[in-house]
């Protein structure tokens, strides 16, 4: 979890937090005999480590299993957090932050792979939406919690807090998470096997399309995090208390939307839910652009547009990730790795771009909102039912049935999730997937 002690770029967090972060940057730099730039780079090393950890951790877990690697990755993250808390120099902190991010990314991707191992069809959509509802607000709430810690104590305490959470997560995995990938379903390892799995996953047009859908949603969320304080406080004079309340309300809106999407799994085609979210996000982006160009972005308009944008992402991002995972059941670790890598790359690209306009205009934010919707729509079209492209190995989890349930394609069975095929010879069986879908629909 990024911490204000590492001084995120000024556009990444709310105004009161940014001021304290700048002060903390000076304190950290003075205590470690470093420059402000070096302190800023510790956040960069964290995000680089997180992206690489997700890219590597998934394929490795496809070979060696989930549980032991999940426990090990959380333990390494915990140790790295302790090193950050005790660091004597900026060089040690940079290295520890990279390891912390790498291990954290490793744990994130394995956690998603565990869900893909256990759930299919509409149940997978439900599970990933619930997870997104709980975890999706972390990039928004994290900086605020970090600011509270900084206000009450020393900057090193934030790393002790992360270490404590790591210990709690390790215990939770040991107690509650079984091994979900038995030896007979594992893949041979090595760089060659990783390359083969990567080609299979990326050769699936539908998977790539849904990754674009999910990645663009992450980009939109970080665009909001990067610019909302400028638009609402600097341009419209919203008080810090009011801004914090609005910030929390939008995070809650995204969470509620993800829970609603989970409830709709098995009743409404997942692609349709994504399309509704895209339409709402586009409306918010166009309204924001019009307000920025002709009405100087009035406060009520900005508040409404941000609320609609964030709620829409709760419908788009988790569902896009679920559909992507359903496309590559034979390589859940690799599929989750690529998905997580793209999401964090999108966040890293969008956040600095969003702040290019400074504190006097909302035009860059509005254009980013529209661009994210355009990219998301392009991904949904690329992944349209019937799109050609190689499909990664279906393994024992079924073929057309899972995709039909999620897509809402015409077929021999009619259902509330969407019409789906019964499948045929060579499609991987899928009888259990059909039963799951019907059961979910009846529920």
From TrEMBL:
It is a multi-pass membrane protein. Residues 389-443 are annotated as: Disordered. PROSITE patterns: MFS. Residues 1-388 form the Major facilitator superfamily (MFS) profile domain. The keyword Zinc does not apply. Residues 423-432 have a biased composition (Gly residues). The keyword Cell membrane applies. One of its GO terms (cellular component) is plasma membrane. Keywords: Cell membrane, Membrane, Transmembrane, Transmembrane helix, Transport. The chain crosses the membrane at residues 39-57, 69-92, 98-119, 126-151, 157-177, 207-227, 247-266, 273-293, 299-316, 337-356, 362-383. Coiled coil: none annotated. It comes from the Bacteria. One of its GO terms (biological process) is xenobiotic detoxification by transmembrane export across the plasma membrane. GO terms for molecular function: xenobiotic transmembrane transporter activity. It holds the Pfam family MFS_1. It is found in: Cell membrane. PANTHER family: CHLORAMPHENICOL EFFLUX PUMP RV0191, PURINE EFFLUX PUMP PBUE. Belongs to the major facilitator superfamily. Bcr/CmlA family. This is Bcr/CflA family drug resistance efflux transporter. It comes from Spirilliplanes yamanashiensis.
């Amino acid at each position: 979890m990024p911490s204000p002690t590492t001084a995120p770029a000024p556009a990444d967090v709310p105004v009161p937090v940014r001021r304290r972060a700048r002060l903390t940057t000076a304190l950290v730099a003075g205590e470690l005999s470093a420059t402000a730039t070096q302190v800023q780079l510790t956040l960069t090393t964290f995000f680089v480590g997180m992206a690489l950890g997700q890219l590597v951790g998934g394929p490795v877990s496809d070979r060696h299993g989930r549980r032991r690697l999940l426990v090990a990755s959380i333990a390494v993250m915990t140790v790295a957090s302790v090193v950050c808390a005790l660091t004597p120099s900026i060089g040690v902190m940079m290295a520890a932050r990279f390891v912390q991010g790498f291990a954290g990314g490793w744990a994130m991707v394995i956690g998603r792979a565990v869900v893909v191992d256990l759930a299919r069809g509409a149940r997978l959509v439900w599970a990933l939406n619930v997870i997104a509802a709980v975890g999706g607000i972390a990039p928004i709430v994290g900086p605020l919690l970090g600011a509270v810690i900084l206000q009450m104590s020393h900057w090193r305490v934030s790393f002790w807090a992360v270490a404590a959470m790591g210990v709690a997560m390790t215990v939770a995995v040991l107690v509650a998470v079984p091994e979900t990938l038995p030896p007979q379903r594992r893949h041979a390892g090595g760089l060659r096997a990783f390359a083969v799995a990567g080609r299979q996953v990326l050769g699936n047009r539908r998977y790539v399309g849904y990754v674009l859908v999910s990645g663009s949603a992450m980009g939109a969320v970080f665009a909001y995090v990067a610019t909302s304080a400028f638009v609402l406080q600097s341009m419209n004079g919203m008080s810090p208390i009011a801004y914090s309340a609005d910030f929390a309300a939008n995070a809650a809106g995204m969470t509620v939307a993800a829970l609603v999407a989970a409830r709709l799994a098995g009743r409404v085609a997942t692609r349709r839910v994504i399309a509704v979210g895209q339409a709402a996000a586009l409306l918010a982006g166009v309204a924001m652009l019009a307000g920025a160009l002709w009405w100087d972005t009035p406060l009520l308009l900005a508040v409404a547009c941000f609320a609609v944008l964030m709620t829409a992402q709760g419908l788009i991002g988790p569902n896009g990730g679920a559909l992507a995972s359903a496309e590559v059941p034979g390589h859940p670790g690799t599929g989750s790795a690529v998905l997580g890598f793209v999401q964090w790359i999108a966040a890293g690209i969008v956040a600095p771009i969003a702040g290019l306009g400074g504190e006097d205009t909302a035009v860059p934010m509005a254009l980013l909102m529209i661009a994210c919707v355009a990219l998301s729509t392009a991904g949904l079209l690329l992944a349209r039912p019937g799109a050609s492209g190689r499909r990664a190995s279906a393994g024992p989890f079924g073929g057309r049935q899972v995709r039909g349930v999620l897509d809402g394609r015409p077929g021999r069975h009619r259902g509330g999730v969407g019409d789906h095929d019964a499948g045929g010879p060579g499609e991987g069986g899928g009888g259990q997937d059909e039963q799951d879908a019907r059961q979910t629909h009846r529920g």
